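input
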Amino acid sequence: MKDAALAEILATVRKELAQKTKPAGALDRIDDLVLQVARAQHSAQPQVMPATALVFAADHGISRDGVSAYPREVTAQMVLNIAAGGAAVCTFAQACGANVQVYDVGVDAPAFDAPVHDVKIARGTQNIRHQAAMTENELAQALQVGHAALHDALKHGAKSVVIGEMGIGNTASASALAAALLQDQAALLVGPGTGVVGSALEAKIQAVQQALDRVGPTTDAHALLRELGGFEIAAMAGVCLAAVEAKCPVIVDGFISSVAAMCAAAIDANVANQLIWGHRSEEPGHDRVLAHMNARPILDLQMRLGEGSGAVLALPVLHAACVMCAQMATFASAAVSNREESA
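output
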């Protein structure tokens, strides 16, 4: 019954788009984006604004093994920067009319005095080379953080959310998760992250492969999140899972948030209908994840920053698409002859 209702909604939107004053197919992917939002919201009046960027921060045990070009302390420092409005995601969000909310899910620091949501589960995960990243209870808490964050954004008027992250070492964790889910070797997924190159990159690849070898061959996404994930990655997966029932579009950022979305979709196939892919990251593993998800990102700006920054930049395109659907004249309303009618 729900599928029939959604099919009727999408048929209505397609009919409306076909009546706009433009040659058939002239707006190509813009029409597709309208339909994506309509599908996610189950609405014939799709809209993405107001939007909230949910940025989750946490530290990783594997960061102590030199898998990042930056020290572990940078996670806490960047949380303060985001909270103060100084990070790229904040400036982009201000320019695009979005709101930013930052969540401390597992930063290795005391609670912040700044306007940060204190939902700390632990001060970082365990080192995935040697043991599971988190306990089953900790994973449940992280997923619940994402669920609660989504509903809080909706309660405050958001029509869509962006998922983003901050965490030194989280490209290693995301690479391990993606490699496990895709049944690939670490070398095919691990990239420079914050700028790791040369022998340091080789060491990062080896560390991720050791984590994969420890876990063994499994594609159980829930188990893999517990074994290899980060608290912020699990929280983003929780947002995606909660978005199904909430009928909320989730604009996915780069490699790390895409891995979180892939995990969520592996747990619940319905998640795929809620996802809109904001941009293509330069992190090499992202292409493999996008291909697996049959995803077409809106932007390709050669970014690899994280924070939700690329997805926020995609918001104006999505917003313009939805406004076009709502406000662009039809052939009838504008008294413009339709080629098909005049043929």
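quick obs: The chain has one domain: 51-325.
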